[in-house]
Design brief:
30% of the residues lie in helices and 28% in strands. It has 15 helices and 28 strands. Strands 3, 4, 5, 6, 7, 8, 13, 17 and 18 form a nine-stranded antiparallel β-sheet that branches. An eight-stranded antiparallel β-sheet has the order 9-10-11-12-19-16-15-14, with no helix packed on it. Strands 20-23-24-27-28 form a five-stranded antiparallel β-sheet, with no helix packed on it. Helix 8 runs antiparallel to helix 9.
């Protein structure tokens, strides 16, 4: 995936660039070398510095890149114009003689500062798409500016970054455009050929076999998708074949996998400098990917993405939708949701760095977004866990979805992190399980990245809290804490500027700290009770650093949560449930029986 610029195609180009437009256009042309395939009039105009004829020849070449035809190609070109050059209207006006500012002034002003990839790309697209109707002289001036600035950008690009695949799709887009615009110069065709190879390799390097993009790519996903749209539209407008059929299938799977990430007013895990999109705009962007890249046969939710602006299935349609839950060990992120409605419950988890990240929407409203930080001290000394998380358990069915992550310091000291969404109950469980293999006291802290505009309230007599926003209420139940405030607790939860901060202490080798978020509209005003349960093994109670059990009641609904910190020799009992598993989450039915929703074996 190289972006090398052949030096034969631009002798002394960088030196000339440093002197700016003080060098005459005629002299600059004499420093260029033509490709052997270049037509004789073009070579002659370059050799003679004949700007008048060369301007006409460059304009003709640009016309041939995107010829005017009826049907789909015209619509493609129109859509390219919508996506390219939104910030470059002044250049477009100057190129076509519509504005008061001469083109030379616009280009000089751009050249005085370090030109960004985005600025260069926009000028290139506008020249390709508008240059057909402009006069020869401004076309040639723009062509020169793009050659000088593009040469510098490509030569000074960070080659090592290209190993990150599609994260650097913008660089590949520039390399492709550079090659197309200067294919009559030496090295030009190699640029476009190398860019096509780069796109194909980047797609393979950046996605799992099922199309899931790697977690580090998600930060810049909207920009990457926009670039893929432009490049895929270029296939139709120019006729450059970029994607093979197998890669087009991978693109379709990629679109299906990332559909989960847009919810509420944000796209999960995007950098702050990326454009924030609402749900409709996100699905429109994905639908554009489907249409531009011809993914109708390859994206499961293609019809839904292209036609559904609001995500609601219209009467009489049979639209298929992407998987509601998925996880990739290689890509290091997972996602689950209750449905594809706008009011769905959504939980996305990314774990490719030391601190994992969460994005949670409760009934379509943002609840958690950002780093799920943690710190562990044993015997007063900080324990440095590894940077590597691994997903040790993943499960989903129509009732529940579970992700269990693990981070270790050595064979004995480890952190297990659980995320469980009850898909029909508007309930999310987030729990941390710490094992140290030591009798020294444990102090564990974590912060959950609370977001949204709701009012945070704490109950005066219990440790229950809530986030209130109009008729929407998210109940927060720290199951590891004693319910009544009059009693002391080793597991506290407080609201800070960073979010919800939990501090847990334990005298033994292990501790378990679960927190429940619940927002069912019909239980909004229901009473809540929770309490620890006695866990017994061979008829004898076990201590809290061996196993924990909890009962939670909200209105008429009751649940049992059990978690084993040390493997039992024989099955344990808790509230009449017999189990040898690591974790059990079950609904307690009115007749006293259990409906097991989640069970994780040791």
């Amino acid at each position: 995936m190289s972006v090398e610029v052949s030096p034969n195609g631009h002798k002394d180009a960088v030196d000339l660039l440093e002197s700016g437009h003080n060098v005459s256009l005629e002299f600059w042309l004499t420093k260029l070398d033509c490709d052997k395939s270049a037509e004789k009039p073009f070579r002659q105009a370059i050799r003679d510095g004949d700007t008048r004829n060369l301007g006409k020849l460059v304009r003709s070449a640009i016309k041939s890149l995107a010829p005017t035809k009826s049907g789909d190609r015209d619509r493609v070109i129109e859509r390219l114009l919508e996506r390219a050059g939104e910030r470059m209207s002044e250049f477009s006006d100057a190129l076509n003689g519509l504005g008061d500012t001469p083109l030379e002034e616009v280009l000089d002003r751009l050249a005085k500062t370090s030109v960004s990839f985005e600025e260069w790309r926009d000028v290139a697209w506008l020249l390709i798409l508008h240059g057909r109707s402009a006069k020869p002289k401004p076309v040639l001036e723009s062509w020169r500016w793009l050659h000088e600035q593009g040469t510098a950008l490509l030569e000074h690009s960070d080659q090592s970054d290209l190993t990150d695949g599609l994260i650097n799709v913008e660089q590949l887009e520039i390399q492709l455009l550079f090659g197309l615009l200067f294919q009559s110069l030496k090295g030009g065709k190699k640029q476009s050929d190398d860019a096509v190879k780069g796109f194909r390799q980047a797609l393979e390097d950046s996605t799992d076999t099922d199309g899931t993009p790697h977690a580090k790519m998600l930060s810049r996903l909207p920009g990457v998708l926009n670039s893929l749209i432009r490049v895929s539209l270029l296939e139709v407008a120019v006729g450059v074949k970029i994607w093979k059929e197998s890669q087009r299938r991978r693109l379709g799977e990629l679109v299906d996998r990332v559909a989960n990430l847009g919810q509420g007013s944000q796209v999960a895990f995007t950098d702050e400098d990326e454009t924030r999109l609402n749900e409709n705009a996100w699905r429109t962007l994905l639908g554009d990917c489907v249409q531009a890249a011809g993914l109708e046969k390859h994206a499961v939710g293609a019809d839904w993405l292209r036609r559904s602006g609001d995500g609601n299935k219209k009467k009489g349609t049979t639209w298929s939708t992407p998987d509601e839950c998925h996880q990739s060990d290689w890509a290091e992120w997972g996602s689950f949701r209750s449905s594809w409605e706008l009011s769905a419950d959504v939980c996305n988890v990314r774990y490719h760095q030391e601190q994992s990240e969460l994005q949670v929407a409760a009934a379509g409203r943002p609840l958690l977004q950002g780093a799920w930080t943690h710190a562990l001290h044993v015997g007063g000394q900080q324990v440095d866990l590894t940077d590597d998380w691994s997903c040790v358990c993943w499960f989903d069915d129509e009732d529940a979805a579970l992700m269990e992550l693990q981070q270790t310091a050595d064979d004995e000291r480890k952190l297990i992190r659980q995320v469980i969404l009850l898909r029909n109950e508007n309930l999310l469980l987030l729990a941390d399980s710490v094992r140290t293999g030591s009798s020294s006291p444990i102090h564990y802290e974590r912060t959950l990245p609370l977001v949204g505009g709701g009012e945070y309230q704490e109950d005066s007599s219990t440790r229950e809290a809530a986030i209130l926003e109009r008729n929407h209420r998210v109940r927060i139940v720290p199951l590891g804490s004693v319910q009544d405030r009059i009693h002391g607790t080793n597991d506290s939860l407080i609201r800070t500027a960073d979010g919800l901060q939990s501090q847990c202490t334990g005298p033994g080798a292990c501790l378990y700290s679960p927190i429940v978020f619940e927002w069912h509209s019909q239980r909004r005003k229901s009473a809540v009770e929770w309490a620890p349960l006695t866990v017994a093994e061979d008829g004898k109670p076990v201590t809290e650093d061996y196993a924990r059990g909890f009962r939670l009641r909200i209105g008429r609904k009751q649940w049992l949560l059990y978690h084993s910190l040390v493997a039992p020799e024989i099955p344990r009992t808790v509230l009449g449930l017999h189990t040898a598993s690591e974790t059990v989450l079950a609904e307690i039915l009115p007749n006293g029986e259990f409906n097991v929703l989640v069970e994780v074996e040791l």
